[in-house]
Amino acid sequence: MSLQNPAGQNRLPALPFESWQDTLATLHLWTQVVGKVRLTLTPLVNHWWNVPFYLTARGMTTSAMPYDSGTIEAQFDFIDHKLIVETSNGPSIAIALAPQSVAGFHQQFMAALAELGVTVKIWTMPCELPNPIRFEDDQIHASYDREAVHQFWRILTWVDQVLKEFRAGFIGKVSPVHFFWGSFDLAVTRFSGRTAPERPGADSITREAYSHEVSSAGFWAGGGEIKCPAFYSYSAPEPAGFAEYKIQPPAAYYHPQMKEFLLSYDEVRAAPDPKAALMSFLQSTYDAAAELAKWDRRNLER
Q1: Threshold 0.85, pTM exceeds
Q2: Residues sharing a CB contact under 8 Å with residue 77, sequence separation 6 or more, in sequence order
Q3: How far from chain centre, in Å, is Cα 186?
Q4: Contact present, 42 and 54 (Cβ < 8 Å)
Q5: Residue 202 has pLDDT above 60, yes or no
């Protein structure tokens, strides 16, 4: 897979965390507004697979969601910078993506749904974020840098393809490559086929997500103490010796608080062969999980 687009531009642009962190925070919340509608309208699928978005040729989509006798779909277009809401009955509405508050975006999106005949009530408190503000009250997050969002989406499209290639080598149960709007990461998860021990004190969301033994990897825009976009990989439950396992490439490291291996996006971007660097990280961290937890690899892998 070439790292060049038709115009000859680098497929892996620089995207320093500090350069777009306000836009990142706003976009994250906008996706949660849309994502909570998806959560409400779709039936529960194991491990919350009914919740994520999927990458498209122009951005990301909820995919078709059932409503009454038809379907509705919301698509973020990060080329022309609009949110397109379409129904199987024909009508559609486009909302411009431009600097505005989360409260304003929430009002516009819910009004568009109502205009299309979709009445849905969502829980308006953001998820998986510190100090959350209800969508309808959030006048603080209101940034939108078109170029930064477009660059982020370009990175996602490349990562999506690499994760799908990595996914193809596994014939056991494996998730789609999907984008979780709660944690704002693109992920793929492999399953050993064994149930996981119960997590004492875990809430219902965590119990559903981690009911079975997994090795999961993905790409995250960064946040908290991690001030850069990064690739991650973890095993749940984590087998003994996982943190000490030799991982590739050498720049990858284990974060003891997060209990994940991390590899900076900039390390991958700067590598002579970025795809090979990322694939070595994905494969070696999976090897660590599968070997140490004694997965039945002969029957799970191609």
Answers
A1: yes
A2: 58, 59, 83, 84, 97
A3: 3
A4: no
A5: yes
